[in-house]
TrEMBL record, chain B:
Keyword Iron-sulfur: no
Gene Ontology BP, a term: DNA-templated transcription initiation
Family: Belongs to the sigma-70 factor family. ECF subfamily.
Name listed for the protein in its UniProt record: RNA polymerase sigma factor, sigma-70 family
Gene3D superfamilies xrefs: 1.10.1740.10, Winged helix-like DNA-binding domain superfamily/Winged helix DNA-binding domain
Key words, A-Z: DNA-binding, Sigma factor, Transcription, Transcription regulation
Residue span(s) of domain RNA polymerase sigma-70 region: 29-97
InterPro entries, per database record: RNA_pol_sigma-70-like, RNA_pol_sigma-70_dom, RNA_pol_sigma70_r2, RNA_pol_sigma_r2, RNA_pol_sigma_r3/r4-like, WH-like_DNA-bd_sf
GO molecular function: DNA binding; sigma factor activity
Amino acid sequence: MNDLNLIRDIERYLEGDMNMQEKAAFEKLCESDPVVNEQVKAHQHITAQLESYGRRLALQEKMDHIHASLDMDMLRDAATPAPARVISFRRRLLTNVAAAACIALVTSLSTIALIQKANRQKTTAQYEDVRRVLNNIQRSQNALINDINNKKRVPANPGTYGGTGFAITDNGYVVTNYHVVAGADSIYIQNTKGEAYKATSVFEDISSDLAILKITDSTFRSQPIPYSVKFQKALRGEKVFTLGYPRDEIVYGEGYISAQTGFNGDSAAYQVSIPVNPGNSGAPLMDAKGDVVGIVTGKQTTADGIAFAVKSAQLKRLLEEMPKEKMGGKWNHKNRLENLTRVEQIKKLEDFVYMVKVYN
Amino acid sequence: MKHNLNIERDRELLLGLTRNDDKALSTIYVENFPAVLRMVLQHKGSEDDAKDLFQEAMIILYEKAQTSEFDLYSKLKTYLYAICRHLWLKKLQSGSWQLSLPEELEEVLPADNHMEDHDKKDEQFRIMEQSMGSMGEPCKTILEDYYIRKLSMADIAEKFGYTNAENAKNQKYKCLMRLKKLFFDKYKL
């Protein structure tokens, strides 16, 4: 029972239940007896231990309660995004790669397209039609009609484009380049004397760049043609000459056949070394005898002295393709220029070489 | 500034925890558990591992918070996460299953000095748990009622059917003596 009394005293002392005398006596006892002192410390320790034990149990219980109220399914999903993240990363990568591929594809395609376009432009830039731009002012068709009604002769307007043409029959059929008359509203042809006649295009061929015009004016009087068209190939080095209208007056030019093919290996044309200027389009190319061997069409812009002329064989093909009823006139097969000097040849020829004026 | 505000909030939560405020406890628990769960799951632990780990960390925090010298100088989240990481590392090292340590866990752990304290406290808790476990009734409940639930001796006497408080007190002293014996057998001061 001694121990029990001691423990009671210790507790009373610690909880402050003792009165002053008791407390003083107990403190004295503690000081004198180390065993009692130790017992006090042990008591303190165990009660503190008990308290913290209780607190911890309570805390654990509360936490278990909180834990039970957690939405574990949701937390689990949120805590294990690892596989999902990999997938989404791959998906994002795929999207990026796809976008990059699309950009690369578009870039390369557009580059190819641009290069091709540039090449084409380069090619066309090298070739130039030699029709002449007569007037930059565009006149309306109405104005033209008024003009015609008023004067019945040459329109005062010099025309929009100009080229050269030459007679192939004695009844008013004239050959020129297709590009001269392309898109024309009306066509006039004018001879060296300044007489102008209205003409219409009756047959056109884009591939050979040739057009056949018919003079429709009733005032036109036919004349026998002094030259013929030679359908055989002209040979390299053969002397040729031409008459055309690079300006308002007829101009003579002389040169030679330099190659049997035209621009970019075009087998329907010759390469000719001859002075050619805008306005020469459709001019006859004649050999030394005065026979037509070709029709001047264009020149190469990148080099000097390189002109091109459609072979006369193309003209023959064109005439054969043309509906027969359209061609009423006589086809001249007899050359009457052969033994004349060049000056005399030109004198006779120039009446049959016309300036072609085009209005559009 | 934002950082400081967050710490201010954490300090208040911690204060609530010391005062046994259930709401503060719940807030801390709900806000910080997911990060620990993620860490444990990432290192091939189970959900129960995460729960045990986190609750142990919470107990450390709680007990630390009871002592007056504890001052929170980092965010609660950081503190709890560091402790959990440390505990998990220890578990991996001491466990029968020797896993290769995840690289990020091999860093020096900031909460190291807290842990020694905790180990001592944990040991005492286990001994107390055992001792209380081996106490029979009504001793166990009387001790709990008086020292933990802080009931008065009169209430305890009534609850257990003692004729007066003095009898109950004597019973309580006997119980306490037995507990002392059991406890100090295993734990030396």
